Amino acid sequence: MNASQEIGKWKRCYTTDFDFDITSSFEFHVNLSAKGYRSLIFSGDHDLVVPFLSTQAWIRALNYSIFDDWRPWLVNGQVAGFTRTYSNQMTFATVKGGGHTAAEYKPDECLAMFSRWLSNAPL
């Protein structure tokens, strides 16, 4: 943009607010999982908004077989949380000491978790 161009007034690029709410991601997850996409689901174990037990209940409702049962995952030799993997390429992990925005509370641990997952390495 050059100095002679004027910046217009900012406005939304859509004309209406959201027309509907998505009350559940269940169907979307089942659909994407059936297509073979990997997924990483994680919860801070101090999350009071969506407790990890609620996330576990959501996962149980998917009825996927457990591939690798509960075990700790480590960062710098310390337990960073616990993880379980499922036969549909889904990984669930808790982040020890993490709140609702786990990466805000435990950035080193979440970076390690995400990096390992992206690399297809075990947590």
UniProtKB/TrEMBL annotation:
It comes from the Eukaryota. GO terms for biological process: proteolysis; secondary metabolic process. Pfam families: Peptidase_S10. GO terms for molecular function: acyltransferase activity, transferring groups other than amino-acyl groups; serine-type carboxypeptidase activity. InterPro entries: AB_hydrolase_fold, Peptidase_S10. Gene3D superfamilies: 3.40.50.12670. Belongs to the peptidase S10 family. This is Serine carboxypeptidase-like.
